[in-house]
UniProtKB/TrEMBL annotation:
InterPro entries, per the entry: ArAA_b-elim_lyase/Thr_aldolase, PyrdxlP-dep_Trfase, PyrdxlP-dep_Trfase_major, PyrdxlP-dep_Trfase_small
Name the UniProt record assigns to this protein: Threonine aldolase
Entries under Pfam families matching the protein: Beta_elim_lyase
Membrane spanning residue stretches: none
Keyword Ribonucleoprotein recorded: no
Species for this entry: Kitasatospora paracochleata
Length: 378
């Protein structure tokens, strides 16, 4: 598919999903006008909007920081315009904190090779921050306590992505995570949670967010993933960590003059999305079971650990993309977003399924019937 054809298909997908009567995966896309109208409705939101607009991080920005810190059970938090910048700042703070004399390398971070900084940030941690990474495991899951104990390269900070998106939004069990925390304490490692999608992890662990974060030294959360804000991210930790993270925020150019529109949508997203996450996660298992009935379909993980999971089908991505757009245009049913080929596995493609509010009223039969219509169009 050439660039012009791909752009046209993307435009058709946007238009068809926006007009669709039913959506199974992800939120309904919006135009700029529609996003602006939604923002205007927040004029009646239950926040004090008769205060001055924020200036370099005060006002509504501080309101969001304090609220997220409380949600995560941490003393304080710092707001950043992007998650990439937020994690760079957090890792820089820990790189400057030497260990207690144990054999370690303060500028080396242990993470998974599928972690966001390795896959999606153009190696910013190495090119901009001078950090080195090591991989305690290459298995499609987080490292185990045994792997960490036997790992023979020194490092100072352990970064855990909860859930690990590229492996299928997978999470360890609570006991497994607790054992990893135990090893980190034994070795005096700093633990940083890449919690871009941490909000939906509490259901799987059967623990509150403060319990999950209690033994982590710092936590990053996204404002637009899951809770649907326009943009933004936060890192949380103790007061000293947050104070130093804000210094790095300034150095990286993240001390913006005003950020109230994005911050206001983040506050609204916390109110709107967090209360219904459990329903979305529970229904994701129903959706996954129904999708798995399609010929050659595979769900990963099975069952899903959160309200997001991977769906694999034995067809080329381009054919699946075209069939999905055609179904949405013809029947007003939008099942999936974009597909991508599985690299060395020809003829096999994957899409990420996100069970959001629009999917909650789908029954298993409606899903299997829609999948049958979708596959007929390939």
């Amino acid at each position: 598919m050439d660039d012009s054809t791909e752009a046209t298909l993307k435009e058709r997908r946007f238009a068809a999903r926006r007009r669709a009567e039913r959506l199974l995966s992800g939120p309904r896309p919006q135009t700029v006008r529609e996003r602006l109208a939604d923002l205007a409705t927040l004029a009646d939101a239950p926040y004090d909007l008769d205060i001055p607009t924020d200036i370099y991080g005060d006002g509504l920005v501080r309101t969001l920081e304090q609220r997220v810190a409380a949600l995560l059970g941490k003393p304080d938090a710092a707001y950043f315009p992007t998650g990439t910048m937020a994690q760079q700042a957090a890792l820089q703070v820990w790189a400057a904190h030497r260990s207690d004399g144990r054999y370690s390398d303060s500028r080396t971070v242990a993470m998974h090779p599928l972690a966001h900084p390795e896959v999606h940030e153009r190696q910013a941690h190495a090119r901009l921050s001078g950090l080195r990474t090591v991989w305690p495991t290459t298995a499609p899951r987080l490292p185990t306590a045994a792997e960490l104990r036997s790992f023979d390269e020194p490092f100072h900070t352990l970064m855990l992505e909860l859930p690990l998106r590229e492996a299928g939004f997978v999470l360890p069990g609570w006991g497994e995570l607790s054992e990893v925390y135990d090893v980190a304490e034994e070795r005096s490692w700093r633990v940083h949670l890449d919690g871009a999608r941490l909000w939906e992890s509490a259901h799987h662990f059967g623990r509150s967010l403060p319990e999950i974060c209690e033994r982590a030294d710092s936590v990053y959360v996204s404002c637009y993933k899951t809770i649907g804000a326009h943009s933004g991210a936060l890192v949380a930790g103790d007061e000293e960590f947050v104070r130093e993270a804000k210094v790095w925020r300034h150095r990286y150019g993240g001390k913006l003059f005003q950020q109230w529109p994005a911050v206001l949508t983040a506050l609204a997203g916390l109110d709107r999305e967090l209360p219904r996450l459990d329903d979305c996660i529970t229904h994701a298992k129903t959706v996954a079971d129904a999708l798995a009935e399609a010929p050659g379909a595979r769900v990963n993980p099975d069952p899903p650990h959160t309200h997001q999971f991977q769906l694999w089908l034995p067809h080329p991505a381009e054919a699946l993309d075209r069939a999905g757009v055609a179904l949405a245009e013809r029947d007003g049913i939008a099942l999936f977003g974009a597909w991508r080929d599985a690299g060395p596995l020809p003829g096999l493609a994957m899409t990420e399924v996100t069970v959001a509010a629009d999917a909650l009223d789908w029954t298993p039969k409606e899903i299997t019937d829609a999948m049958a219509a979708f596959l007929e169009l390939i």
